Amino acid sequence: MSNASYDVLAVGNAIVDVLSPATDEFLEAQGIAKAAMTLIDEDRAKELYAAMAPGKEASGGSAANTVAGIASLGGRAAYIGKVANDQLGEIFTHDIRAIGVDFDTPPLTDGPASARCLINVTPDAQRSMSTFLGAAALVTEEDVEHGAEQLRAAEIVYLEGYLFDREEAKRGYVRAAELAAASNRRTALTLSDLFCVERHRPAFQHLVANHIDILLANEAEICALYETDFDSAIARVRKEVEIAAVTRSEKGAMIVSGDETAEVPAAPVAELVDTTGAGDLFAAGFLLGLAQKRSLDEAGRMGAIAAAEVISHFGARPETGLKALAEQAGIEFE
Questions:
Q1: Separation between Cα atoms, residue 238 and residue 109, nearest integer Å
Q2: Nearest 5 degrees, angle CA 287-CA 290-CA 296?
Q3: Could you give the CA distance from residue 82 to residue 67 in angstroms, rounded to a whole number?
């Protein structure tokens, strides 16, 4: 272990999730794109919330879910993200601190409300997300600078692709990567979502090629990033980053580093309930494994175990201690 105070510091959208069961007919009636994340405004958020079935509210946001998973695995995590000075902002702040993650980004006092993601989960366990970003999208270079001391003390700095929808956040990301590099820390990026990649392909390509050491994506996202087939995308990403982990649903994950390849099978799941957070929790196990200097295969197994737990229930954060599950699977911790 290095002199890092944290295994991972994540920068992302601070969001409160609202999860509700839904039918395909409801999605169609509401004009919701299935299995995708669609950005909506505050008025649409209020309208859709009123139409949805009774749901479960939980603090979320992709990178925040990842650091929650890291904490559940016994890792040390910190988070940079923006909430407003309102009730949802207080909920998010309380929840992330309560699980042991360091979070002290100043709240927004003049501007939009805290973000919320309205997630309709169909019987096939697919989640269709309608997101009002509000304050979450307003992470700036100043917020990154505010957390610079924590950032320099993190083994890995993890950036959430979803946050790329505003120029301020893009500049914040580049600043975070620069601070990480200056402190000999590694920078990781998740591509987050197929539509996100398609919106920001040139910016993502530039970021990956110039600032990213560890890339996380699913099969569709990596192909979209390079506008090519899977094998060609893997060949290219080997040349651009130190490590890439590509999840492939029930086929598990492929992890590549230079000429090395690790094929990690998906961990067994008793019942698939809700795929929300699967990629986020895979990232939790995988990044913690890398921070702890484990092999690609073992880090991938940690990711698969964390992902399997979160898809077995509603919600994007673990309900069972992930460290205990990993130990049961034969993974040893100091």
A1: 43
A2: 105
A3: 15
Q: How far apart are CA 59 and CA 42, in angstroms?
A: 18
Beta carbons within 8 Å of 43's beta carbon, 6+ residues apart: none
pLDDT in tens, 199-258: 999 989 999 999 999 999 999 999 999 999 999 999 999 999 999 999 998 899 999 999
- Residue 131, classified by CB atoms within 10 Å of its CB into exposed (0-12), middle (13-18) or buried (19+), is buried
What is d(CA 308, CA 61) in angstroms, rounded to the nearest whole number?
19
How far, in Å, CA of 207 to CA of 171, rounded?
11
Residues 15/60, Cβ–Cβ less than 8 Å: yes
CA distance 56 to 119: 10
**Single-letter residue type at 201:** R
Nearest Cα to Cα of residue 195 among 168, 167, 172, 161: 161
- DSSP-derived pairing of the beta strands 6-11 and 77-80: parallel
Which domains, from first to last, does the chain contain? 6-14+61-112+136-328 (3.40.1190.20)
Q: Please write down the HEC assignment for all residues of 44-89.
A: HHHHHHHHCCCCEEEEECHHHHHHHHHHHCCCCEEEECCCECCHHH
CB neighbours (10 Å) of residue 155? 24
- Kindly list the distances between the CA atom of residue 246 and the CA atoms of 12, 34, 222, 279, 284, in Å, as whole numbers in the listed order: 20, 22, 8, 10, 14
Q: At residue 226, what is the residue type?
A: Y
pTM listed for this prediction = 0.91
